[in-house]
């Protein structure tokens, strides 16, 4: 490979890297703009202190128990690391919208949601006990669309 070929290869590689960074930045901006439309612009997050983590997975995020410093009230916070993919953004928007709109006695209460540059946070009532999936598994109700029919 001669010098001219090396320079051309380096230039193409540089342009590809710039294009990839611009694409990621575009995805990030679109994601954050969409999430900011459904979340609070400011949060009272600084009023809370962590008590512990009680769940974590790649899809649902990290579930933490927090305690409000001034009242001692316990809340659950779901934090979801953003991938900036449209499908994940839409999933988060759907979850927040459902929690905001549907105030059902047997569903945890929604308090607030907010977004940072790298994560979305959903604040909700903390309820000790089993998750819906654990209850359904114990009752062998995970087959079919039982949860969907109960919630509608």
Summarize the structure.
This protein is an alpha+beta fold.
Produce the secondary structure layout.
Blueprint: H1 3-36, E1 48-57, E2 61-68, E3 74-81, H2 86-101, E4 110-115, E5 119-125, H3 132-138, H4 146-151
Antiparallel strand pairs: 1-2, 2-3, 3-5, 4-5
Helix pairs in contact: 1-2
Describe this structure in words.
Helix 1 (3-36) runs parallel beside helix 2 (86-101). The chain has helices spanning 3-36, 86-101, 132-138, 146-151, and strands at residues 48-57, 61-68, 74-81, 110-115, 119-125. It starts with a helix and ends with a helix. The chain has four helices and five strands; from the N terminus they run αβββαββαα. The protein has a single domain (45-151), classed as Phosphorylase Kinase, domain 1 (2-Layer Sandwich), CATH 3.30.200. It is elongated and about 70 Å long. A five-stranded antiparallel β-sheet has the order 1-2-3-5-4, covered by helices on one side. The protein has 152 residues and is α+β, with helices and mostly antiparallel strands.
């Amino acid at each position: 490979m001669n010098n001219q070929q090396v320079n051309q290869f380096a230039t193409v590689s540089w342009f590809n890297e710039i294009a990839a960074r611009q694409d990621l930045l575009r995805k990030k901006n679109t994601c954050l703009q969409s999430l900011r439309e459904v979340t609070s612009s400011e949060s009272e997050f600084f009023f809370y202190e962590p008590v512990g983590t009680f769940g974590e997975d790649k899809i649902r995020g990290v579930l933490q128990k927090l305690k409000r410093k001034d009242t001692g009230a316990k809340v659950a916070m779901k934090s979801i690391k953003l991938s900036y993919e449209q499908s994940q953004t839409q999933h988060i928007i759907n979850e927040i919208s459902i929690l905001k709109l549907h105030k059902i006695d047997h569903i945890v209460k929604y308090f607030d949601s907010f977004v940072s540059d790298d994560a979305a946070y959903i604040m909700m009532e903390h309820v000790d006990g089993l998750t819906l999936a654990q209850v359904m598994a114990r009752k062998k109700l995970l087959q079919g669309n039982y949860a969907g029919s109960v919630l509608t």
